Amino acid sequence: MAKKQFKAESKRLLDMMINSIYTHKEIFLRELISNASDAIDKLYFKSLTDSNVGIAREDFKITLAINKQNRTLTITDNGIGMTADELEKNLGVIAKSGSFDFKEQNEKKDNIDIIGQFGVGFYSAFMVASKVTVKSKAYGSDEAFEWTSNGTQGYEVKVCDKQSVGTEIELVIKDNTDEESYDEYLEQYRIMGIVKKYSNYIRYPIVMDVEHEKLKEGSDNEYETEIATETLNSMVPIWRKNKSDITLDEYNAFYKETFFDTEEPVAVIHSKTEGSATYNALMYIPSRAPYNYYTKDFEKGLQLYASGVLIMDKCSDLLPDYFSFVKGLVDSEDLSLNISRELLQHDRQLKLIAKSIEKKIKNELEKLQKTDRDKYVKFFEAFGLQLKFGLYNNYGMNKDTLKDLVMFYSSSEKKLVTLAEYTQRMKEGQEFIFFASGESIDRIDNLPQTELLKDKGYEILYLTDNVDEFALQMLFEYDGKKFKSASAGDLDLESTEEKEQNEKTAEQSKDLFTFMQEALKDKVSTVRLSQRLKTHPVCITSDGEISLEMEKVINQMPTDAKVKAKRVLEINAKHPIFEKLKSLFESDKELLKTYSEILYTQALMIEGISVDDPVDYSNKVCELLVK
Ligand code: ADP
């Protein structure tokens, strides 16, 4: 049979593995053992519902074997196995997820930080092996197949002889070179050490025939070799140990291995809870969002163990959507081992556990926010959006849980602040929590509407995410203070005198504004004197429930529902343009129409709203320029 070539991407990765100068080559064993353990998990899950599997839980195991003469190290599992197709698909091609951009950045960077991150685990075998043979028999199949490769020249798949279901991976260990020793991977103590270091909590026994020298019976200087099968991993799960016996490094190592993250989490929650719900939980708050976090593909959930036995890998009922980023596991003796997924959903005990877990997560986040703001900000940058969606969803049902966890950028602090921090430093007599929306912090900061507010010393929350205004609307108020947009309604900023003066000016210019409004008939519902502008000539604001930002967001959504904010063109009476408008009203009404159009369009552009007819606008401006 002809050799098949690896796909281009795989080839490149393979080259990296073969020529790796990676110092932790030993991790290849962790990768292979972890694959074996996953494969056993799969068959074990099947065995819960399919009596044909015929293997008892205690019979699942991973076997290591060293053969020094042949220079081989073999890893065998009695897991689910692979069909010929799967061998081809899983081992012939990598980068299944298509995320292969890492090569550019990482090749330059730390050589290989990518192991395990993109499902390249198996390939790490080529860091230590000159040839790899995978014999596998899939559960439910009569035939076994063999996949072989020496890395560089592609791979081959053919039928082979293998009786038992599962996978056997044989590595021919490379010869030593001047720089590098490979013999160590044929030393039993070295292998035992690697297993202890990386795979100690693998749930299935990792066994090996271990040779011991012992004194010959009846002799005091003659030794003989005794061979005994030993289990190399302790299997005592970390979450069942006492907190005081676990270091942060151990917690983090467990996290990285189990949940496939290369970065350390921002927080660890380890708790043993007794009472109405009795369980052990070990949970982590990641420091960054997985690439698919904000997509439909992301599956939330915690691993669920019943008395130390994994019964579900992602139990979604344990986590509310707004805390879906939490990774971890729950182990409870209150749950039955053989409970079906359907029944589990309605399980009273599980509901109690979920409630209790939610509280723990909330407390942990609040603690982090107070005690380590930098870490909290890192967390919030990754997952804040999810918390804000949580505020908004279900008609704000969860606002009490979430209102103190969300943060917004503050105009005065120039960083993220909580609503509590905002309200605590509100000015004497300040009625509202002010906010302004836009595409970016800079853009909002330059909005005409925010100038006067800032000038008068008010703090403004800058909202840059689509969901922000909706979340605040759902929240309605915080600590008795209502939210108020800098771009909507009456801000109530003036003194009584200023108010009177404004009313007088407005009254005098009533006809002018009516004329302008007619000129902009379908575009604005009102033209009025502005109370919020300082140096800018005009701005666009809105009256009523729907703000300009909401209009933008809702109309971007892929539904037919379109909304329109009631647009208001506001004119600054203190700006010279106002005198000009007044005089045009007396002398040249046609030109006043053009001015109205131009000012309106400018206000839209400042606001970041797309202009209906940019060509018309450009022509009008040009006409004026050549005048
Ligand atoms: P990852 O484990 O990250 O998906 P790998 O390259 O290590 O990436 O493995 C690719 C795939 O090959 C696995 O997802 C699994 O489907 C399959 N596989 C690897 N090792 C085994 C094994 N021992 N038994 C069954 N399937 C395996």
Quick description:
With 627 residues, the chain is of the alpha+beta class.
Strand order of the largest sheet: 5-4-3-6-2-1-7-8
What characterizes the major β-sheet?
8 strands, mixed
Computed Rg: 34 Å
Hetero groups: adenosine-5'-diphosphate
- SS content category: alpha+beta
Output mean pLDDT.
89
Helix content: 25-40%
> Uncertain runs with pLDDT below 50, 5 residues or more?
95-119
Quaternary structure classification = single chain
How would you explain this protein's 3D organization?
It is built from 20 helices and 22 strands. With 627 residues, it is of the alpha+beta class. It has an eight-stranded mixed sheet, with helices on one face. A six-stranded mixed sheet has the order 15-14-17-16-19-18. Strands 9-10-13-11-12 form a five-stranded mixed sheet, sandwiched between helices. Strand 18 and strand 19 form a beta hairpin. The longest helix is centred in the middle third of the chain and has 24 residues. The radius of gyration is 34 Å and the shape is elongated. The site of adenosine-5'-diphosphate has 15 residues, from helix 2.
List keywords for this structure.
627 residues, alpha+beta, eight-stranded mixed sheet, six-stranded mixed sheet, 22 strands, 21% strand, elongated, binds adenosine-5'-diphosphate
Protein topology:
Blueprint: H1 8-18, H2 27-49, E1 62-67, E2 72-77, H3 84-92, H4 102-108, E3 129-137, E4 144-149, E5 155-160, E6 166-173, H5 188-199, E7 206-215, E8 223-231, H6 248-259, E9 267-273, E10 279-285, E11 302-306, E12 309-315, E13 327-332, H7 341-345, H8 348-371, H9 373-396, H10 399-402, E14 407-410, E15 416-418, H11 419-424, E16 432-437, H12 441-445, H13 448-455, E17 460-463, H14 468-475, E18 477-478, E19 481-485, H15 496-508, H16 510-519, E20 526-529, E21 538-543, H17 548-556, E22 566-571, H18 576-587, H19 589-607, H20 614-626
Parallel strand pairs: 1-7, 11-13, 16-17, 16-19, 20-22
Antiparallel strand pairs: 1-2, 2-6, 3-4, 3-6, 4-5, 7-8, 9-10, 10-13, 11-12, 14-15, 14-17, 18-19, 21-22
Helix pairs in contact: 2-5, 8-9, 9-14, 16-19, 18-19
Residues 31, 35-36, 39, 77, 79-82, 90, 119-122, 167 line the site of adenosine-5'-diphosphate.
